């Protein structure tokens, strides 16, 4: 059986030269290996990323787009065009492309190994093990039975058992797989990871993954020289010896290197190089044994000590692997997939049979074991659908089978289509079957609003008997947000003398992606269940803790891992569960001091800020730093700390909240507060006596009167009456000589509401005006009201929190 790639056999074509002399000397770049492979990589990335963009509304994992993209570039679609095939994917270029693809796969399997924690695997519950066993054995058995419907078995002579056995095992393994990484991505996308359902499915998938790799190693050893039983036996025994040697030697070497990499210091390049060389050598060893190079890399990844050293290596290579090299493996799979080979009633019948048996075996086996473990029927059904997820691991098995000439072109195409179908239906079926409102307690709006807790900084009479502890949730987008936030926290602690009176939660906003590092962070949350506590920390959290040396402030670090479209739910849910009274978000644009202009970090963060303002269970502030808070040359907790704060008070709930926060900052010995009360001619003091008790104007007057009666030493009052927006601009420019301005978001005065909102509605009219007419840092505050809708209680938050 000859393996055809894009319609040609690589063994029969000549190799290409590496580089050309250029088009001006009459040479086409497409006739040389390097320029052609560059063009191929760019084409593959463009096609797969475009498909991922179009499939995003259906919440499909990127692996679906990459598999489909590979098929479209292959002989099933574009590859049928002769000019396209001979120009962009000629047979003589496929050796180079296949080598790069397998190198990317080898490094990716190393990253996958880093995701698997053997200690956590040993702690897997009996329930998860029984579910994994049933979800593996039943589909494996059905795969064995299904294999007899294929010509590789049915048409073989009765004495050709050596050809049948590898095919039967490959079919069993292909139908019993669960894609661990893809499952983690889907669970996190649907916010099921920290539920009981998510924990069980992830634990079962990890057990399934390990058992599937063992079975695949057995299948590969049997698919070698089929004329002698001794060769497969030697391959199998050598593979076992390699694994044992790695278990005895590798952990000690890596632990020795890991101890030399001290916390907070940059990891030396020689250690990273040594680790990667070990991965490549392990791949060479297993390839020499006759298994596959990816097994050696996978074993090294599993045995690699989990922690800062592993995270640093993954961070250095995963972008190149995931972004450039791994998509090449999908296109190589696509070049081997020819859907047109599936023709005739028998062929399409085999495709339907494989899909039905794959889904039936996985779902029925998992559901049966889950029901016996006393899991509810609906949850058991969802668990079965989740365990039916397939992806890259499925393609690896199929490609190895194709390269070993175990699977024919038609069987390979049938199995690839099965993998796409089963992965594609997972998310829609889970969303259809899983009803969180029926399995978890969801807070309705009335009970949510009536719960007694502090939701804002300004005190109400009904809150006097409640705790006076102020809890603040601060969100970070990157390391550059740390300095201004640390200085703001120090000023906000006021004059408190105990840690119990001020508590700060610091949340690093991390986008959920296909990167293994993202999945590893997700696993940390999964291993710790619904409480989200863990000692693992990401780089931003470590940097924050290194910068944060605050007195009498209780600080807890949190990492939220979600798609950016829904990460506001994590912020709101965390603020609610921690009883935070104030959430502080960084502005989505960062100030560049040298150029004196803003740069956009990520435009998606503007949408996050807007959605938090709409759904927050407490007051919210958006911090726009213009350099006044970033320059910290000494420890913020030292006696030299100083901060000048100006509050522009126009009136209304948001302004009262901003002023209340400013008053707390004024309690700090190093802070100086100036309150600028700006009023218009439309409301005179005589008119105030005639308004209702609950009117905003009267509330403002009482609030200001109470502040004046306290007579704070570090507080200065200024009052201004304005008649036009031009006068407002002049007053703002007059009082912008400070470290930070505090203003409210809403406009409850006519002369304020006439101000243009411009490009940043989340900052309100005054915030926009300050941003456009001054260079001072500003904190824009929105006070919590019961009129605000809330998403709290309807989601499960994927977080990793550090004590």
From TrEMBL:
Q: Which Pfam families match?
A: CHX17_2nd, CHX17_C, Na_H_Exchanger
| Sequence intervals crossing the membrane | 32-51, 63-83, 95-116, 128-150, 165-188, 200-223, 229-250, 271-300, 351-375, 412-434
Q: Which PANTHER family match?
A: CATION/H + ANTIPORTER, CATION_H(+) ANTIPORTER 16
Query: One Gene Ontology cellular component annotation?
Result: endomembrane system
Residue ranges of every copy of the Cation/H+ exchanger transmembrane domain listed in the record: 51-430
This protein's UniProt keywords = Antiport, Ion transport, Membrane, Potassium, Potassium transport, Transmembrane, Transmembrane helix, Transport
To which protein family does this belong?
A: Belongs to the monovalent cation:proton antiporter 2 (CPA2) transporter (TC 2.A.37) family. CHX (TC 2.A.37.4) subfamily.
Gene from which the chain derives: LOC108827541
User: Is Zinc among this UniProt entry's keywords?
Assistant: no
Family annotation (InterPro entries):
Cation/H_exchanger_TM, CHX17_2nd, CHX17_C, CPA2_transporter, Na+/solute_symporter_sf
Instruction: Please provide the Gene Ontology terms (biological process) for this protein.
Output: potassium ion transport; proton transmembrane transport; regulation of pH
Q: What is this protein called?
A: Cation/H(+) antiporter 16
Report the GO molecular function annotations.
antiporter activity
Question: Which residues are in the Cation/H(+) antiporter C-terminal domain?
Answer: 642-786
Where does it live in the cell? Membrane
Please report the record's description of how this protein sits within the membrane: Multi-pass membrane protein
Traced from the root, the source organism's taxonomic lineage reads: Eukaryota, Viridiplantae, Streptophyta, Embryophyta, Tracheophyta
Region (Disordered), start-end ranges: 441-463
What are the residue boundaries of the Cation/H(+) antiporter central domain, all occurrences included?
A: 501-627
Keyword Transmembrane helix listed: yes
């Amino acid at each position: 059986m000859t393996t055809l790639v894009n319609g040609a056999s690589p063994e029969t074509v000549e190799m290409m030269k590496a580089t050309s002399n250029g088009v001006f000397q009459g040479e086409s770049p497409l006739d040389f290996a390097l320029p052609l492979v560059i063009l191929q990589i760019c084409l593959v990335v463009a096609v797969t990323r475009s498909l991922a963009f179009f499939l995003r509304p259906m919440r499909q994992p990127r692996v679906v787009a990459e598999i489909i993209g590979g098929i479209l570039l292959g002989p099933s679609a574009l590859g049928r065009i002769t000019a396209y095939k001979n120009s962009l994917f000629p047979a003589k270029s496929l050796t180079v492309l296949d080598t790069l693809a397998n190198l990317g796969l080898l490094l990716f399997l190393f990253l996958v190994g880093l995701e698997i924690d053997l200690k956590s695997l040993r702690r897997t519950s009996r329930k998860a093990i029984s579910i994994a066993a049933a979800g593996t054995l039943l589909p494996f058995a059905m795969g064995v039975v299904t294999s007899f419907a294929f010509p590789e078995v049915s048409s073989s002579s009765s004495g050709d058992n050596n050809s049948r056995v590898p095919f039967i095992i490959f079919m069993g393994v292909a139908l019993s797989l669960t894609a661990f990484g893809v499952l983690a991505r889907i669970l996190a996308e649907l916010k099921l990871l920290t539920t009981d359902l998510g924990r069980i499915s992830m634990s079962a998938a990890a057990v399934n993954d390990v058992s599937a790799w063992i079975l695949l190693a057995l299948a590969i050893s049997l698919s070698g020289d089929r004329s002698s039983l001794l060769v497969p036996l030697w391959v199998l025994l050598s593979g076992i010896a390699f694994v044992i040697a790695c278990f005895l030697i590798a952990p000690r070497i890596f632990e020795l290197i890991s101890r030399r990499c001290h916390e907070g210091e940059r990891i030396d390049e020689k250690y990273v190089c040594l680790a990667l060389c070990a991965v490549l050598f392990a791949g060479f060893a297993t390839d020499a044994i006759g298994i596959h190079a990816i097994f050696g890399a996978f074993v090294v990844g599993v045995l690699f000590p989990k922690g800062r050293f592993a995270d640093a290596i993954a961070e250095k290579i995963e972008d190149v692997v995931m972004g450039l090299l791994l998509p090449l493996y999908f296109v190589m799979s696509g070049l081997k997939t020819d859907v047109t080979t599936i023709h005739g009633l028998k062929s399409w019948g085999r495709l339907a049979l494989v899909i039905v048996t794959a889904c039936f075996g996985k779902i029925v086996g998992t559901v049966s074991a889950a029901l016996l473990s006393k899991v509810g029927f609906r949850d058991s059904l969802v668990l079965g659908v989740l365990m039916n997820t397939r992806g890259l691991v499925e393609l690896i098995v199929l490609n190895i089978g194709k390269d070993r000439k175990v699977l024919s072109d038609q069987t390979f195409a049938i199995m690839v289509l099965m993998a796409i179908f089963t992965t594609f239906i997972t998310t829609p079926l889970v969303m259809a079957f899983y009803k969180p409102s029926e399995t978890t307690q969801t807070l309705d709006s009335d009970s949510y609003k009536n719960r007694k807790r502090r939701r804002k900084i300004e005190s109400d009479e009904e809150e006097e008997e409640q705790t006076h502890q102020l809890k603040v949730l601060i969100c970070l987008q990157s390391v550059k947000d740390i300095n201004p936030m640390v200085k703001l926290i120090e000023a906000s602690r006021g004059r408190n003398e105990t840690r119990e009176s001020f508590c700060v939660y610091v949340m690093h906003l991390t986008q959920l992606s296909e990167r293994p590092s993202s999945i590893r962070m997700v696993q940390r949350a999964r291993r710790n269940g619904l409480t989200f506590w863990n000692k693992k920390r990401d780089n931003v959290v470590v940097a924050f803790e290194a910068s944060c040396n605050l007195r009498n402030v209780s600080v807890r670090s949190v990492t939220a891992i979600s798609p950016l479209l829904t990460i506001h739910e994590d912020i709101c849910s965390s603020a609610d569960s921690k009883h935070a009274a104030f959430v502080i978000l960084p502005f989505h644009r960062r100030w560049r001091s040298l150029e004196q202009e803003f740069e956009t970090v990520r435009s998606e963060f503007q949408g996050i800020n807007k959605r938090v303002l709409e759904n927050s269970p407490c007051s919210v502030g958006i911090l726009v730093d213009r350099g006044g808070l970033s320059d910290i040359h000494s420890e913020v907790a030292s006696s030299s700390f100083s901060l000048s704060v100006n509050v522009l008070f126009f009136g209304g709930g948001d302004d009262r909240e901003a002023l209340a926060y400013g008053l707390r900052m004024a309690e700090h010995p190093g802070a100086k507060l100036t309150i600028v009360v700006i009023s218009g001619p439309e409301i005179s003091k005589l008119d105030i006596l005639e308004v209702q008790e609950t009117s905003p104007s009267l509330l403002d007057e009482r609030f200001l009167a109470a502040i004046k009666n306290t007579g704070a030493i570090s507080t200065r009052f200024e009052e201004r009456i304005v008649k036009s927006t031009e006068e407002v601009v002049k007053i703002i420019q007059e009082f912008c000589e400070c470290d930070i301005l505090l203003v409210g978001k809403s406009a409850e005065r006519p002369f304020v509401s006439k101000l243009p909102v411009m490009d940043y509605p989340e900052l309100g009219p005054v915030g926009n005006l300050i941003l456009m007419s001054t260079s001072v840092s500003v904190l824009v505050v929105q006070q919590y009201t019961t009129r605000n809708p809330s998403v709290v209680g309807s989601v499960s938050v994927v977080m990793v929190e550090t004590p």
